[in-house]
Structure formats: C-alpha cells, structure tokens
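This protein record is not my work; I was only asked to verify it. Take the sequence as given and treat only the tokens as open to question. I have pasted the whole thing underneath without changing anything:
***
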Amino acid sequence: MLFDLRGKRKRVVQVSYVLLALLFVVGFLGFGIGVGGGPGGIFDALGIGNGSSNPGTSQFQDNVDAAQAKLAKNPNDTKALLKLAENEYLIGKTGVTQDQSTGQISISNDAHTDFGQAADAWSKYLKVNKGKPDTSVAAEMVYVYAFLNDAAGAIEAQRIVAENEPNSNTYGTLAQFQYLSGDIAAGDETSKKAVSLASGAQKKAIQKQLDQLRKQGLQVQKQQKQAKKAAGGASTTPGTNPLEAPFGGAAGAPTPTSP
C-alpha cells in the first residue's frame, strides 16, 4: 500500500548485482553521471557506503509523514507525491551498501520496500501530473528502478531526463539502459541521438563507448534467448524479480541470503 509506515530496518538481503554494478560503475561514470575514483565512485556519490547511519533519515521520514498527511486529504496532490517519491528513495538508499572489495551489494528488505513505495508514488504522480514531469526526481527514480530490477521503469525515467535535458550524457545513459536490457534496436536509435548531440571532439569517444555497450547488450540478448529456450519457449521478462541480477543479465548469480 502507498501509505504504509515501516518499522525498524534490520533484515538484510544480499545478492550479487553484477550487471547493476556494471551500470553504475562503468556506464554511468563514462557518461558523466558518477564521479571518478574506482569501483565505489558512483555509490559514494549517492551516499551509499558501508552501512553507517545517515543523520538525515529522521528528516526524510518526517517529509514522508507530511506528504502522506496531504495525500490522505488529496490523493492527487502532485507536490506531495513528488515529496513522497523522493524521500522514500532517500530513506531506501540508506539501506543499500556495497562491499568495496567484492562489489557485492546488500539491500535491506525495508530498503526494497522503500524503493517500491517511491516507485508507486512516482507512477501515481505521472498519471495525475498535467505538465512536464520533474526532471530531478525522475533522475532519482532511475536509481530506484535499477535497485528494483525494473528495466522498463529505469528506461522510462531516464527517457524523461533525456527529453527534458537533451545532451550526449543523458541520451548516452538512456542508450546504455536499452542496450543492457537487451533492446538493441532502441539502443541503436538513441545512440545516434547521443552522438549527434556530442561536441566534435567527443563524438568518437562516445561512439566507441556506445559500441562497447552494444556488444554487452548483444550478450544480454543472447542470454535472454537461451533462457527462453530453456523455459520451453515461455516469455522471459527482464526485471520482474527484484532479487535476480538486474536487467536480465548476470546468469548464475548466487541465491540471495538473509544473515
């Protein structure tokens, strides 16, 4: 439910998010979304680290409570829906940690719930909002959907960012998501847009990176076809299980464990 409140955050689910690490560390850094400094760069930029408490969490919860109070009176309050989506995301990311040596990501059960609440609020916001969607919150929802293993959601959130702030970085990142979800045709189309928006000196470098991402996307597409064949022809949809490797990749990831 959209307005549920959670209790203490104790239980943790660990899973090897191999492709998620690839998205955040390699692709995002390459397109200027993250910061440099090695494998932990993008997670450091997001405030995700070794699990230490965040002093702002109580304020985030206060903001959630305030937004819920407004939505109880008016479920279509777009400002309240935005505040709810953003602060559920901010609370959720405090429950995400990454082992800097192994790259393994740990996401608490409650953090996963928070991300789900953020996605619910964002989805409702998009339905009732009359103007252009909020770009800054859309950018945060990209991370929300990535942690929820929802490729389609991440792609659509990034599409909003790219359309509202068109440049080689935003469209390059959109192409990255499309390629790594196995949608090569869409990635090709978006890549052309990204390269066309790049400056003369950057065009070759961006094209080279996109070509590499395309190769990785072809591998994902191959894995999807193999999985479909192994399932007897049944359709396989990447991103349907939040505890599998994101975007349908990283076959053979270990089963999640609760310590």
